[in-house]
């Protein structure tokens, strides 16, 4: 969710932050070595620290814990890179798990890759308003439909999170035991969350459609914009630093 603030990262052009996010993700994906990926993760944490939202960013990493554990286990025992001392090897049906030094390093790199990409994405969402993001895309010349779709997708993530939290609190206030059993053991828990969330999403879609019609969305090819987001030196510096991360990731041992 967006975290209000007046830090330099908050004031940057949303288009520059989106471009930096793409470049940082590309830098992380072009290498499988843990050192450059860890450096890019530290760069993301440093940006969050300067923006005053490092604790919200760290708390958001909890969403990645299940996927992180899965990646670490799978990539450690079934790595694409083999080598070094082998500590465990077995033949289980059609599977051949092997735990080696190279596999552990590869697993660590994949885990850091998830944290780096996820951290940069969370940081972008936490420092970018939905309306500012849409206006910056329109200023770059993107079609209005595409700009609105990307911006609405960004806003829907935080809106759905708010809905799930409100629904969970409402069910608890009605003495519904959501946390007592797991979802697999208590099928009523899934229905208690899924049905209200579906109704909320459909209701919001109808409200958005009515609002778009009231504002004449799509009635003109070149809609006007009352607020501009200039691309200044700080935005250029951000994109340049993010672009330099790609050769750094390729050349770093």
TrEMBL record:
This is ABC-type transporter, integral membrane subunit. The chain crosses the membrane at residues 35-58, 63-82, 102-125. It comes from Methanofollis liminatans DSM 4140. The keyword Membrane applies. The keyword Transmembrane helix applies. The lineage of its organism: Archaea, Methanobacteriati, Methanobacteriota, Stenosarchaea group, Methanomicrobia. It is found in: Membrane. Keywords: Cell membrane, Membrane, Transmembrane, Transmembrane helix. One of its GO terms (cellular component) is plasma membrane. Pfam families: CbiQ (PF02361). It is a multi-pass membrane protein.
């Amino acid at each position: 969710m967006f975290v209000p603030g007046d830090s330099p990262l908050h004031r940057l052009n949303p288009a520059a932050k989106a471009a930096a996010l793409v470049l940082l993700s590309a830098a992380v994906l072009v290498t499988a070595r843990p050192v450059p990926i860890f450096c890019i993760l530290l760069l993301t944490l440093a940006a969050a620290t300067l923006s005053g939202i490092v604790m919200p960013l760290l708390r958001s990493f909890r969403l990645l814990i299940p996927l992180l554990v899965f990646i670490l286990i799978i990539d450690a025992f079934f790595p694409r890179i083999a080598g070094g001392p082998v500590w465990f090897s077995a033949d289980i049906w059609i599977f051949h798990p092997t735990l080696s030094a190279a596999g552990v390093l590869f697993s660590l790199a994949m885990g850091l890759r998830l944290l780096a990409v996820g951290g940069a994405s969370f940081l972008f969402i936490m420092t970018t308003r939905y309306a500012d993001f849409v206006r910056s895309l329109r200023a770059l010349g993107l079609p209005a439909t595409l700009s609105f779709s990307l911006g609405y997708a960004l806003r829907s993530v935080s809106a759905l999170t708010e809905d799930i939290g409100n629904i969970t609190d409402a069910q608890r206030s009605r003495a519904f035991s959501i946390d007592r059993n797991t979802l697999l053991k208590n099928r009523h828990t899934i229905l208690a969350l899924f049905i209200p969330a579906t109704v909320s999403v459909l209701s919001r879609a109808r409200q958005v459609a009515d609002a778009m019609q009231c504002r004449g969305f799509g009635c003109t090819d070149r809609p006007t914009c009352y607020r501009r987001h200039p691309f200044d030196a700080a935005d250029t510096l951000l994109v340049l630093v993010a672009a330099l991360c790609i050769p750094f990731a390729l050349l770093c041992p």
